[in-house]
Amino acid sequence: KHTSNAISELMSLAPRKARVLRDGKEQMVSVDELVVGDTIIVRPGEKVPADGIIIEGHSSIDESMVTGESIPVEKQRGSTVIGATINAQGSFTMRAERVGAATTLSRIIRLIEDAQSRKAPVQRFADAVSAVFVPIVLLIALLALLAHLLLGSSVTASVIAAVAVLVIACPCALGLATPTAIMVGTGLGAKHGVLIKGGDALETLHRIKQVVFDKTGTITNGTPEVTDVIVIAPVRGAAGAKNAEKDVLSVAASLEARSEHPLAQAILRRAKPKDKVARFAAVPGKGITGIISRKQYLFGNAKLMVAHGVEVTDDARRRMQELESEGKTVMLLADKRLLAMIAVADTIKDGAADAIAGLARMGVSATLLTGDNE
Predict the structure, then answer these.
(1) Which of 65, 80, 205, 324 is disulfide-compatible with 373, CB 3.0–4.6 A?
(2) How far apart are CA 310 and CA 316, in angstroms?
(3) Do β-strands 73-75 and 59-62 pair in parallel, antiparallel, or remain unpaired?
(4) How many domains does the chain have?
(5) Residues 6+ apart with CB under 8 A from 205
(6) 240: burial class by Cβ within 10 Å (0-12, 13-18, 19+)?
(7) CA 288/CA 279 separation, integer angstroms
(8) Does 284 fall in a domain?
(9) Three-state SS at 301
(10) In which residue ranges of the chain is pLDDT below 50?
(11) Tell me: the pLDDT tens digits for 119-165?
(12) What CA–CA distance (Å, rounded) separates 84 from 235?
């Protein structure tokens, strides 16, 4: 049941409707009606209805349901998009390349369903034994019935003798115990968030020597948080150097309050917006800009700084590389000069270190699989 629920939850990720351009008109259709080559419009917050390629526009897309990575991926013209992922910011037009059962999500579901039907070696052995043993038992029961009748026993006594042979010799446990144990094991695994590929994988689990962990949502909480705030220059008008970090976060939060980017929530969880922002603008693939107290601020990546002529020193670039080497996403705050770096990353779950240490004590080594910055 739990395994079936896990598959049902995957199926529920798929969108039901798609906005397509046909005969020059925009119309809503069921995803089942999509065909390869359809031109599809995807707006902010909507799920991508099919696998395809962006032909116009740019956005950032949450691909965590496929890759596990919580940081949205920037997409532009020519980029591939995956069906059932979430368009976090910006509208774009795409061309459908794979639809229906050919999409990435459908193939994942099909692989899981196929895996659940696979039998473990011990189950195949039990089935083979049962296939021979059951006919033999039936034959012996029949012989017992005939023997008792020939020896003059009543029909009732003869039937009881045959049934006794069946009850005693029928290999019910042999045929049922193994699949029942595997069903319970995979079901309990799914209940705890572990999808076991099949009975053969469950049977060999006790022999493993290495565990490969996905990072996002497994070792980490799956939600980006502010981890580092490096003040390079105080915000002009700030009330003292000791409040420099607080002032930097306040300006960043005020800008991000108008943003739809998923990383904005990490900033807003750390600080509250205090200032009104005028002439707010989102620059796809780079960041955001806005005017606070008659001063323009920039908040985004190094490309945004270069586009506005803000100098990023070699020392600042070195510190950025250090943070990125730790798997963090670095955002820069500037006016006409670079003011601060704010690093955002997925934080480690409580208990993750203890779990890995426990595996080490069992002689099992752990490997982390992640698509983070090197």
Answers:
(1) 324
(2) 12
(3) antiparallel
(4) 3
(5) none
(6) exposed
(7) 10
(8) yes
(9) coil
(10) none
(11) 666 666 777 777 787 788 889 889 988 998 888 888 898 899 888 88
(12) 42
